[in-house]
Amino acid sequence: MPLKLSLKPGETFVVNGAVVRNGERRGVLLLETQARVLREKDIMQPEEAVSPARRAYFAVMQMYLTGSLEGQDYDEAVAALAELISSGAEEKDAVIAISEDLIAGNIYRALGGCRKLINAESEPVH
Fold first, then answer.
1. Which label site among 18, 26, 35, 54 has the fewest CB atoms less than 10 Å from its CB?
2. What are the residue boundaries of the structural domains of the chain, listed by start?
3. pTM metric for this prediction
4. Phi, psi (rounded to 5 degrees) for 37
């Protein structure tokens, strides 16, 4: 089943490491084979990685974009997740789930878990 992307005018996305920009009109892109795809809204710049959750997201995003399951990005993801655990973060179960996804090679799912951690740290504490 193809992946269908509905694109806004000028929207940027990444496919297997190639940065692609949509033209001046809305567009639809169908990907018939498996590919690593990230939309502009899901791409984090290095200067935005200012918290452990954001550093984990950035490292996992780099792993996803490069297709690499080891190396410096993996080490940085593990370090950021360890920092979250040691800081007493309330989301320990989420951090453990992200770690398990990384070990299993489910990088896109780990990326989604990191996004949830970022959203949780953005919510006001009551």
1. 18
2. 3-40, 46-122
3. 0.83
4. -125, 135
Sign of the CA dihedral running 84, 85, 87, 93: positive
Spell 85-118 as b/e; 16+ CB within 10 A means b.
Answer: eeeebebeebbebbbebbeeeebebbbebbbebe
pLDDT tens, residue by residue, 81-126: 998 888 766 778 889 999 999 999 999 999 999 999 888 876 654 4
Question: Which distant-in-sequence residues (6+ apart) come within 8 Å of 42 by Cβ?
Answer: 61, 111, 115
Encode pLDDT of 47-87 as tens digits.
999 999 999 999 999 999 988 888 899 999 999 999 888 87
One-letter amino acid for residue 92 of the chain: K
